[in-house]
Amino acid sequence: MRFARCVLLVQALVMASLSLAYWLRPYEMANLNGMLLMESASVSHMRVYYGGLQLGLALFLLWAARAPERARPALMMLMITLLALVLGRLLSLWLDGGELIGFDLASLVYRVLAAALAAAAWLAIRERLEPEPERLEPPTRQLVSEPPKPFQLGDAPEPPEPADEYRTQPFRRGGPAP
Predict the structure, then answer these.
(1) Which of 47, 63, 76, 126 sits at 20 to 30 Å (Cα–Cα) from 6?
(2) Residue ranges per domain, the chain?
(3) Which residue has the higher pLDDT, 68 or 136?
């Protein structure tokens, strides 16, 4: 579990750092990718999408690193996200006939290695299957073992006779009798 927690925390740190870089230095981060931000809307998009999304993922990974039962799903999410980004980059290169510049190549290699570490951590965690609790039948309130008889009007049981000490006395005016 320590290895998985370490992978989650390192990935959260990297994503939070990149998020901060996209928020504080959107022009420089765009230039690393060969993009030029010409409008304020594109700067906002860079901050919101690249910075905000990575911050959200970092916070999720920090949350998941706190509890062992959350580590496996978080590692799976990390693997799927990173491999989808790698696949997107490779398909983009194939479709556009482009070439990898320095930052793109480093990003691609980093994502492949991070996905491999997440996969190794995911495989290292053995999911503990807890036995299902025995199903207990609820207690019944059945007093007799015979099936119930149909109810007809007037079939009510006779009320029990009150005990002698609880018999009611007729009401009398005046004080108590001596």
Answers:
(1) 47
(2) 2-124
(3) 68
